[in-house]
Structure formats: C-alpha cells, structure tokens
C-alpha cells in the first residue's frame, strides 16, 4: 500500500472556552487559549490518501487534484476566519481544538476524495510547532 500526503496551510483565530462557564473556570481548563479577545494560529494541514499507484501515471492520486479538493473544502472556508464565529462547524458548542478540526476536515474531504477515485487515510493538523493531532476516521487507524 502506498501513501501520498499533500500539505496546505491556513491561518485562523479562535478561542477555547465553554460559554456557560465563568472566565476563571475557562482560564483554569483552557489556559491562555481561553483569552476572550481571541488568538491565532498558522495551521499546517497534511492530508494523506492511500492506494496503489496507477500503472501508467505512477500516481496514487494526482497531488494537484488533491490540492484542489483540500483548498475548496477546507482552506477557502477556514483561511483568515474566526473558527468560533465565521464558520458553522462548531455552532453546536464543540470547541475548535486541533482534534475537533481534524474530524471536521475529514468529514469535508472523505467523499470528495472518494469521488476522485482515491481513499482518505489520515488528516494531520499542526496547530503549533509543538502540537498536532491525527485523525484516521471514525473507525480509527486501519
Ligand atoms: N489537546 C489539545 N490541547 C490544546 C489545544 C488543542 O487544540 N488540543 N490547543 C491549545 C491552544 O489553542 C493554545 O493556543 C496552544 O498554543 P501554545 O500554548 O502557544 O502552544 P505550544 O504548546 O506550542 O506553546 P508553548 O510555548 O510550548 O507552551 C492548548 N492545548
């Protein structure tokens, strides 16, 4: 099995805070990420697809096609946005953490990548140089 990864980047603002909680509790649980006046990250996204390379092209999937899908479904929506306010991914009250972003990104990519003839294997998202999350879909790592 072969794995192909495409990198894309975006930047966005957010805060981590439970609306119903007082500021001091949010500060205790989420630290500086609960700052009521927001903070931003330069996100670094790695989307991996898997399969066997086509015998003629040698591609598991054309990386340009993958890039187009990731840009249309994720980057164009999130780049320069406020993740709490500008998009509807977290309107249900879930926090825009790195983990929750990876599963949302998966939902937005899986079908489009399948329609292009490939299979989504992993969504990896770096929030900072020191923090990243991996998501392998609802069933976990194959
Ligand atoms: N499990 C998670 N923990 C944390 C997340 C997350 O998404 N999932 N996010 C945050 C904050 O968003 C925070 O802004 C992270 O930034 P920072 O503390 O600057 O990150 P670093 O750890 O890379 O910086 P250090 O200087 O090394 O502390 C927090 N936790």
TrEMBL record:
Q: Which reaction does it catalyse?
A: 7,8-dihydroneopterin 3'-triphosphate + H2O = 6-carboxy-5,6,7,8-tetrahydropterin + triphosphate + acetaldehyde + 2 H(+)
Q: Which InterPro entries match?
A: 6-PTP_synth/QueD, 6-PTP_synth/QueD_sf
Q: Where is the active site?
A: 33, 80, 127
- Protein residues bound to Zn(2+): 14, 39, 41
Q: Which UniProt keywords apply?
A: Lyase, Metal-binding, Queuosine biosynthesis, Zinc
The protein's Enzyme Commission number: 4.-.-.-
One GO MF term, please?
metal ion binding
Task: Specify whether Zinc is a keyword of the entry.
Answer: yes
Top-level taxon of origin: Bacteria
Pathway named in the protein's UniProt entry:
Purine metabolism; 7-cyano-7-deazaguanine biosynthesis
Q: Which cofactors must be present for this protein to function?
A: Zn(2+)
For this chain, the family text in UniProt reads: Belongs to the PTPS family. QueD subfamily.
- Its protein name is 6-carboxy-5,6,7,8-tetrahydropterin synthase
**Organism expressing this protein natively:** Neolewinella marina
Q: What is the lineage of its organism?
A: Bacteria, Pseudomonadati, Bacteroidota, Saprospiria, Saprospirales
């Amino acid at each position: 099995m072969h794995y192909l990864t495409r990198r894309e980047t975006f930047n966005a603002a957010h805060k981590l805070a439970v609306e119903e909680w007082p500021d001091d509790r949010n500060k205790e649980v989420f630290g500086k990420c609960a700052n009521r006046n927001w903070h931003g990250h330069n996100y670094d996204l790695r989307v991996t697809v898997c399969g066997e390379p086509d015998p003629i092209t040698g591609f598991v999937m054309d990386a340009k096609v993958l890039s187009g899908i990731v840009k249309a479904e994720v980057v164009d929506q999130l780049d320069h946005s406020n993740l709490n306010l500008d998009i509807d991914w977290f309107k249900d009250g879930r926090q825009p953490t790195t983990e929750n972003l990876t599963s949302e990104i998966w939902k937005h990519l899986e079908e489009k990548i399948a329609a292009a003839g490939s299979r989504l294997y992993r969504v990896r998202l770096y929030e900072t140089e020191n923090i990243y999350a991996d998501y392998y879909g609802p069933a976990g790592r194959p």
